[in-house]
Amino acid sequence: MENNNYSILLYYCYAAIEDCEAYREEHHLFCIENNIRGRIIISPEGLNGTVSGLKEDCEKYMAYIHADPRFAKTEFKIESHDKHAFAKIHVRVKPEIVHSSLRHIDPNVKTGKHLEPLEFKAMKDQEDVVILDVRSNYEHELGHFKNAVRLDIDNFRDFPEKVKELEHLKGKKVLTYCTGGIKCEKASAFLLEQGFEDVYQLHGGIIKYGMEAGGEDFEGKCYVFDNRIAVDVNAINPTVISTCHVCGTNCDRMVNCANPSCNAHLPICEKCGWELEGACSTTCQEHPEKRPYDGTGYYQKNTNGYNPYKGLFRKPNKETIKNLIHE
């Protein structure tokens, strides 16, 4: 039996941050002093993060976020795990917490109506409802809701242009969804801006739907942005919808191409993975910089010499230094 002593936290919060660099420094230091790893974005419009740590350390991290009045409303999706889901901690300042072409939209002012997972489940099959996936191709090709409308986009910033193809749905109730809810905040607001009148969003996204509604009718796996790459969501009527990029057999085993110049995110079955040494094609297999394949299809960046204090202006306190020496 696995000892799931670790937690993986997925969260976001749209809230104004005036001095992003100062807060990044403070936030980064808290993470390294409490052994929190992951990827965190800080921007003038708020926070977005996926982090991992021992359960007690994650509890401290959530308390730290909630203690700041700006982020008191932050909701965490919490999953148990047997180890860290990240090898490093990165806290970065960026213009937006999710890259889009919708910087003018403030979800605290206007956004689609939030549906809790069980409310979404009750509405999704009604005749006047359309389910809209606002994620990128490589995400929805691995898994999506049954009968969902999926847009041909490589990045969320392409979403506004693709909305032009949805004009015929303006008389419907539009239920948007994404991994954790963050993209839907702006996507649903943009739909309202474009004249769609009845727009909703799955609060907490696919991850929360799996936790609270059993994941029913989510077909395939959910792509996630940590070392797991893909996770099971549906415990009620699971199916495999993706196919091996190489041989075409049913496959939901997501890998990164071993050729770092390609690094495509693709489903590749175990047999083809070994035959092509983790590459997505013979061309990539023959690439001189191809990475060694260990059967997982995940390639952690080299952490030799990694300095968690890199980018900090403030020196760590004596107690932190003492703890690091004894670890």
TrEMBL record:
GO biological processes: tRNA modification
InterPro entries: Rhodanese-like_dom (IPR001763), Rhodanese-like_dom_sf (IPR036873), Rhodanese_C (IPR022111), TrhO (IPR020936), TRHO_N (IPR040503)
A single GO molecular function term of this UniProt record: oxidoreductase activity, acting on paired donors, with incorporation or reduction of molecular oxygen
EC number, UniProt record: 1.14.-.-
Function field: Catalyzes oxygen-dependent 5-hydroxyuridine (ho5U) modification at position 34 in tRNAs.
Record-stated family: Belongs to the TrhO family.
Stated name of the protein: tRNA uridine(34) hydroxylase
Species of origin: Mongoliitalea lutea
Gene (name only): trhO
